[in-house]
């Protein structure tokens, strides 16, 4: 079974990723209408812009909570990768790459998009395209976080399977030693009687 430090760090990663998916889910109502509704109206984009304006002007404490949750997820990775086992290198390394990819997309597209919503400077694209970039970026982040969750669950399953197989192997070895010991006792007992 996973050790307590691994369990704690895995909990940090799972809670952080799940919380961030919940934050993205709140935006899904607007993102779905702008990305996957055929011919979205100007009213749909106005609602999305209003929503993103609200998010961009949220109180600083909410931003600190968000950044703390991201930091806790990164702390979980640091703890797990401190002295990595083989499964840590594969599962946690992949999870960290996905987590960082999501963080980079957030910082380069979503956060910059929030600034564009506030100042109206969309660069080389129009407002509707800029809002769609924010929405598409959040979908990408959601997939990276789902990948993190999938890899963490896969690692847990692999560790549990490995522990079961190790316990089965040890049980078989004990039984084999007991049989050999009993067979050795049976061989030595008749020889001892012959000597008398």
Question: What do the pLDDT scores average to?
Answer: 88
Q: Compute the separation of the termini in Å.
A: 53 Å
Using DSSP, what is the number of strands? Answer: 0
Radius of gyration: 28 Å
Structural class: mainly alpha
Q: Please outline the major beta sheet.
A: none
User: Which stretches are low in confidence, meaning pLDDT under 50 for 5 or more residues running?
Assistant: none
Name the overall outline. Answer: elongated
The percentage helix is over 70%
Strand content: under 5%
The H/E string reads HHHHH
Total helix count?
Answer: 5
Can you walk me through this structure?
This protein has 196 residues and is mainly alpha-helical. The protein has helices spanning 4-35, 42-56, 60-80, 86-119, 127-195. Helix 1 packs across helix 3, helix 1 (4-35) packs antiparallel against helix 5 (127-195) and helix 3 (60-80) runs antiparallel to helix 4.
Question: Main attributes?
Answer:
single chain; 196 residues; mainly alpha; 5 helices; 87% helix; elongated
């Amino acid at each position: 079974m996973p050790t307590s430090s691994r369990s704690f760090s895995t909990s940090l990663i799972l809670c952080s990723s799940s919380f961030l998916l919940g934050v993205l889910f709140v935006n899904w109502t607007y993102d779905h209408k702008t990305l996957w509704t055929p011919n979205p109206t100007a009213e749909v984009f106005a609602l999305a812009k209003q929503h993103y304006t609200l998010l961009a002007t949220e109180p600083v404490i909410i931003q600190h909570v968000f950044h703390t949750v991201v930091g806790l997820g990164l702390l979980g990775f640091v703890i797990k990768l401190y002295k990595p086992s083989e499964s840590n290198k594969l599962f946690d390394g992949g999870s960290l790459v996905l987590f960082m990819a999501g963080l980079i997309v957030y910082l380069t597209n979503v956060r910059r998009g929030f600034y564009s919503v506030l100042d109206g400077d969309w660069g080389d694209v129009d407002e509707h395209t800029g809002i769609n970039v924010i929405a598409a970026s959040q979908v990408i982040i959601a997939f990276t976080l789902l990948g993190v969750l999938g890899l963490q669950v896969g690692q847990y399953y692999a560790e549990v399977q490995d522990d079961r197989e190790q316990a089965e192997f040890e049980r078989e070895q004990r039984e084999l030693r007991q049989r050999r010991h009993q067979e050795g006792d049976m061989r030595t007992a008749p020889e001892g009687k012959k000597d008398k």
